[in-house]
Amino acid sequence: MRTRPSSPTAITVLNLLPQKSNLKFSTSSSNPSSRSLVFTKTPKSQPQTRFSSSTTRSLFTGIVEEMGQVKHLGNTPDGGFDLKIRASTVLEGVHLGDSIAVNGTCLTVTEFTDEDFTVGLSPETLRKTSLIELEAGSAVNLERAVQPTSRMGGHFVQGHVDGTGEIVAKDPEGDSLWVKVKVDRGLLKYVVPKGFIAVDGTSLTVVDVFDEESCFNFMLVAYTQQKVVIPFKNVGQKVNLEVDILGKYVERLLSSGFVESIKPAA
Questions:
Q1: DSSP state for residue 260 in the 8-state scheme
Q2: Domain end (from 92, 115, 144)
Q3: What are phi and psi of 13, to 5 degrees?
Q4: Would you write out the chain's pLDDT as a tens digit for each of its 266 residues?
Q5: Which residue numbers delimit the Lumazine-binding domain (predicted)?
C-alpha cells in the first residue's frame, strides 16, 4: 500500500514567464492589508520555476469535497508564487502533479504532506481569480479532478475561471440563503435562468438574471451553506466564476460561420 511521505516532496514545475519578469506582492504602507501584483526585473542568470495551467487537462463536477484552510500564500525564493493549504479528504491518494480545484481554480499539486498540499500560482491565475484576496486562515473550497468512475453530481466544470463577480446581496429566506452577484456583461451573456454556473468551484443553478443590474442570483439550501465558503464571504467580496462551456462553444460556432457552412446547397 502506498503511503504519503511525512515531509514535503518537491516537484520540478514549468517556467511560465519570460526570464526578465518577476511577480511579487506589493503591500500599501497606508493599508497593510491591501495587496497588489507588481512585476519587477529579474537578472537573466536567475532561474524561475512556475506552474503552467496550460498543461492541465482535468474535469470537475462542482461538488465541493471539503473546505480547506490556507496556511501560506506568497512569494518563493526562486521567484515563484505558492499557496499552501491544510486539508484531509483531498489528500487521500494524492500524487505530485494531481489537479485540485481551489475555489474553482484548477491547480497542480507541487508538494504535499499528510496534512497539507502546495500549489503554484501563475500571474494570469492571480489576475483572473479572487485567490489574491486569500490570507492565512482563509477557508477555500476543494475538489479533486473526477475519475472515470466518479458520479457526475454537478455539471462539467473545467476549473478554468472566466472571471470574478462581486457579491452585492445576501438575504435569508427560512433556512436558505439568497445570494446576488454582479458580473461583467461580457460574462453575464452566458448566464441563463435555470442554467449551470460554478461559483468558487461550487456547481449551482442560476435562479434569475437581472440584465439591467448586470447581476444574477442563486439560492443555497441549509446543507450547502455548511459545506462551501460562499456563505462566509461578505457583501463586496469577490467570487470566482466559470460559466457553462456549452454556451461559449455555441457562440464560437455561430460567429465562425459554421452554421452556414453545413447548410445544404440550394
A1: H
A2: 144
A3: -115, 170
A4: 444 444 444 433 333 333 334 455 555 555 544 555 554 444 433 333 333 343 446 789 899 999 999 999 988 887 778 999 999 999 999 999 999 999 999 999 999 999 999 999 988 898 899 999 999 999 999 999 988 777 777 788 889 999 999 999 999 999 999 999 999 999 999 999 999 999 999 999 999 999 999 999 999 999 999 999 999 999 999 999 999 888 888 888 888 887 777 777 76
A5: 59-155, 156-254
Residue 86 lies in a domain: yes
219: burial class by Cβ within 10 Å (0-12, 13-18, 19+)?
Answer: middle
pTM of this prediction?
0.74
CATH number at residue 53: 2.40.30.20
Determine the Cα–Cα distance for residues 14 and 49; give it in Å rounded to an integer: 6
The single-letter code of the amino acid at 131 is L
Q: Which domain does 100 fall in, by range?
A: 21-144
